[in-house]
Every structure is written in structure tokens, then in C-alpha cells.
Design brief:
The protein is an alpha/beta fold. The protein contains 14 helices and 15 strands. It has 2 domains: 126 residues, Aspartate Aminotransferase, domain 1 (Alpha-Beta Complex), CATH 3.90.1150.10; 225 residues, Aspartate Aminotransferase, domain 2 (3-Layer(aba) Sandwich), CATH 3.40.640. Bound molecules: pyridoxal-5'-phosphate (PLP). Pfam families: Aminotran_1_2 (PF00155).
Length: 384
């Protein structure tokens, strides 16, 4: 395998990076979900080639990109779709909001599993929906679904806005859990919007299962959302896609663009195409680097901060840390920011019950992860 360099720190200060620009320059940012690595060399090369063409008018997604996605779904997940099932979008978040716009009416129930990515947690507010929160169950081995609570929540919901793999816990739902969710959705006539943006970031050889791939019946009521953005670190290029195999649902989904959700950025399409076509070795190398970071983080947390609870991520580059037992004088995000100059995402962003949690982004060179841990140590030592 070609070796790829994930250790070099690429300076992002002064490059309009949201992650690095949101705080003063002495703060180490370990919050928003993008990585501090350069994109795969083949993606950079494809973009360079496109830039050199020099004409950047409106564009259309190429048939070859559709075919590539169709082949990928078959090869990676055993899921048969057709090119027409794919709807290109400028982002996954616009995608789930389009779906909510098209499939709900005010006061309908919207089921979510907490803790969860903030735009999923708060999406109900845009459309006047009732938020039905069913927490994931946590144990030392990881997170699982509470099947009865989920089923009860489905009974009160029109739509389930699902996140698999799950942000912030890094949980990967098992085939059995997905089967339960699908059966429950079918039984209660619930539409599933499945945000699978992290689907290529499964660790330790796990395999992603799109919920719509379980059966034609669940596919019929599912809008699946995916993107190359997280895995290949091209989130700023704003390209994503939905897979909607039910033609009526797809037609309604497309109609809900309402002139607000525009076509996709030319460079985003180009980068996604190159990523899917020629960056699989890079992705393999990335996954093993992330596994190394996750394991290092896990062992350092246990060694340095035994009071912090962390469940190993099964996917993504996000770690969900319970800091309750530290008994801090302020919420942990504020504490580590003010005293350690390291920025995490606040647990309360992911649900009201999670104020004592932080989400740490370990998608960075190991040296930055070490620096982040040192800053946490300094913050905690400053308290004594
Ligand atoms: C679960 C999840 N969905 C959606 C998004 C945002 O996707 P996009 O930038 O394509 O709207 C993120 C970004 O962090 C995410 O973690």
C-alpha cells in the first residue's frame, strides 16, 4: 500500500477554516466535524486539473458519477439502486430539511435519538414539529437502542430522523437494531430520513448497513443521505446526495427545493467523483490512523483522567466524553476552553441532558491530539 502522511500539521490558521477561525489563535480547536488532514492526493489532483480548465459555469452531475455511486452501493453494501434514484444536493443538512418540509405538517411528531448532532436535534423548530426524543442507552460496552421506548416514540411520530453512524457517540447500529427500527417504522407508517454522512468512516473493519438496503419495504419509506465530505475531508466543497428509490417520494422531495436549495458546486462534484473513483487506499490508511488516535485517546483518558468516561467510537473521528465525575465549577466545554485553551463541542449542543459531556474531534495529526490532552491536563491542574 502507498503510504500517506497524516502526521504533518497543515496550518489552517488564516485559511478561512471555520474550525480554526471561530476562536482566537491561541486556542487549539477540537470541535467542528472536519479533519485537519489534506484531502487525498488524487482528489487534489482532480481539482487542480479542473481549475486549470478555467471555465466555471453552471454544471450538471456527470452520468459517470451516478454510475460510480450505483456501483459503490452494490459493492460496499450489497444495495441495488439505479442512477435515477440519486438526487444531488449542496449538503446533507439541506437534504434532511427538504425531506421534513415535504413530508410533514405542523405538529407532526419527529423522532430523534439523543444525544444527537445539533441540526438534527433542532430541525423540528424549522417546521413546527413536536420533537420526540428517545435517548440511546449507554453501558460500558457502548450504546444500544431501547427497543420498547423507540417503538413507543414511533407510534407518536410521522418521521424518524436517524443518524447512522451516529454523531456524537460514534455508534454503528447493528443489523438487528436496524431490523427493529425498520419493522417499527413500517408498523407505525413512519418515514425514515437516514443521515448516513459518516458511512465510510467505520473503524475496526466494521461494515456499514444502509437501513434502506434491508428490504424493499423499508426502502420505500426511506430517504438516505450521504456525502464524500466527511471521509475525504472536503466538507467545504458542499456536495452531497440523497438516494430515494420510491419515485413518488423522490418527486415530492425534489419539489421541496422551492428555489432555496440550489444545484451543487462544480468542485464538490469533481472532488466526490475523484474520491469515490481513486481514493480507497487513502481511506484505508486514514481509518487505521484514526483507529490509532482513538486507541491512544482512550488509553490516555484512562491514565490521565480516570474520572472521565469514554465509550470507544466504533466509527467517525468523534469521541463523546462524560465529564460529570470531574465535578467542574462550570460546564466542561467552558472549563477546558477558559483554563486549557482547547475548544471542544459542548455536550448541551447534543441534547439538554448532556451538559456534562464534551465532544472531542480526534481527526488530526497525533501531535495535535497530544497537545489537546496536555491542555486538558493543564486545565485540571489549574484547579488545585
Ligand atoms: C451527522 C451529520 N449530518 C450532517 C452534517 C452536515 O452535513 P452537510 O455539511 O453536508 O450539510 C454533519 C456535519 O458534521 C453531520 O455530522
Amino acid at each position: 500500500m502507498t503510504s500517506f502522511d497524516f502526521d504533518t500539521v497543515v496550518t489552517r490558521l488564516g485559511t478561512d477554516a471555520k474550525k480554526w477561525g471561530a476562536y482566537p489563535s491561541d486556542i487549539l480547536p477540537m470541535w467542528v466535524a472536519d479533519m485537519d488532514f489534506a484531502a487525498p492526493p488524487s482528489v487534489i489532483e482532480a481539482l487542480r486539473h479542473r481549475v486549470e480548465h478555467g471555465v466555471f459555469g453552471y454544471c450538471l452531475p456527470q452520468d459517470s458519477l451516478r454510475t460510480q455511486i450505483v456501483d459503490d452501493m452494490q459493492k460496499k453494501y450489497g444495495w441495488t439502486i439505479s442512477p435515477d434514484d440519486i438526487v444531488f444536493l449542496p449538503g446533507v443538512e439541506p437534504g434532511f430539511n427538504m425531506a421534513l418540509k415535504s413530508e410533514t405538517k405542523p405538529d407532526d411528531g419527529l423522532l430523534i435519538q439523543t444525544p444527537v448532532y445539533n441540526p438534527i436535534l433542532t430541525a423540528h423548530r424549522h417546521w413546527g414539529l413536536q420533537s420526540i426524543e428517545v435517548p440511546l442507552r449507554e453501558s460500558n460496552d457502548g450504546y444500544s437502542i431501547d427497543a420498547d421506548a423507540l417503538d413507543e416514540g414511533m407510534g407518536r411520530s410521522r418521521v424518524f430522523l436517524f443518524c447512522n453512524p451516529h454523531n456524537p457517540t460514534g455508534k454503528v447500529f447493528t443489523r438487528e437494531e436496524l431490523g427493529h427500527i425498520a419493522q417499527s417504522a413500517i408498523r407505525h407508517d413512519v418515514l425514515v430520513i437516514s443521515d448516513e454522512i459518516h458511512c465510510e468512516l467505520l473503524l475496526d473493519g466494521r461494515r456499514h448497513i444502509p437501513i434502506a438496503s434491508l428490504s424493499a419495504e423499508i426502502a420505500d419509506r426511506t430517504i438516505t443521505l450521504m456525502s464524500a465530505s466527511k471521509t475525504y475531508n472536503i466538507a467545504g466543497l458542499k456536495a452531497a446526495f440523497a438516494i430515494v428509490t420510491n419515485p413518488q417520494l423522490r418527486q415530492r422531495f425534489n419539489a421541496s427545493r422551492l428555489g432555496l436549495v440550489d444545484s451543487v458546486n462544480l468542485f464538490g462534484l469533481e472532488a466526490a467523483h475523484a474520491a469515490y473513483m481513486s481514493a480507497s487506499e487513502w481511506r484505508e490508511a486514514l481509518l487505521s490512523y484514526l483507529e490509532g488516535n482513538r486507541d491512544y485517546l482512550q488509553s490516555e483518558i484512562a491514565r490521565r483522567f480516570p474520572k472521565i468516561r469514554i465509550v470507544p467510537a466504533q466509527s467517525t473521528y468523534l469521541a463523546w466524553l462524560d465529564c460529570s465525575a470531574l465535578d467542574l465549577p462550570e460546564p466542561p466545554q467552558a472549563f477546558f476552553l477558559n483554563r486549557g485553551k482547547v475548544a471542544f463541542s459542548a455536550g448541551s449542543d447534543f441534547g439538554a441532558a448532556y451538559g456534562n459531556f464534551i465532544r472531542l474531534n480526534f481527526g488530526c495529526p497525533r501531535s495535535l491530539l497530544v497537545e489537546g490532552l496536555d491542555r486538558m491536563t493543564a486545565a485540571l491542574e489549574s484547579r488545585i
